[in-house]
């Protein structure tokens, strides 16, 4: 997956009943292939999602590297977290509601919806994004979330 050429899957896409998971998989694949482009991994949203399900970047990265398909990844995660469908749905709903504004911005930035993305002048976007990527990388490592 080359995220410098196309966006990751939309935040609302689901796998194994979990929103954000397909997008996370795309970002991990791009991270492992060094094709993240302007995307950050693990971003603050990635980390929040993983915390909700007690997952770590190290676990996700290993799983994505070793699994043959998205379905295999989804099955392995569901087996690991051992939550009912209702609880997974509840946690995803809380995640969706908490970050509703961020998802609206992502939809616009990724081109899934028309309109302005980040409400910042173009000349400020690149330096702020570089700062965010450095901050995010310092905040999380493959062994710490």
UniProtKB/TrEMBL annotation:
Q: Which residues form the DUF5069 domain?
A: 5-85
The molecule here is called DUF5069 domain-containing protein
User: Which Pfam families would you find in this protein's record?
Assistant: DUF5069 (PF16798)
């Amino acid at each position: 997956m080359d995220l410098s050429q196309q966006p990751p899957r939309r935040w609302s896409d689901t796998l194994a009943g979990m929103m954000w998971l397909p997008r996370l998989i795309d970002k991990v694949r791009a991270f492992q292939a060094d094709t993240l482009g302007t995307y950050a991994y693990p971003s603050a949203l990635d980390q929040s999602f993983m915390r909700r399900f007690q997952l770590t970047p190290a676990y996700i990265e290993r799983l994505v590297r070793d699994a043959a398909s998205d379905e295999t990844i989804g099955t392995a995660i569901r087996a690991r977290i051992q939550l009912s469908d209702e609880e997974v749905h509840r946690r995803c709903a809380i995640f969706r509601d908490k970050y509703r504004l961020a998802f609206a911005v992502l939809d616009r930035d990724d081109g899934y919806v028309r309109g302005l993305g980040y409400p910042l002048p173009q000349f400020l976007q690149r330096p702020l994004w570089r700062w965010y990527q450095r901050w995010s990388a310092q905040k999380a490592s493959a062994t710490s979330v």
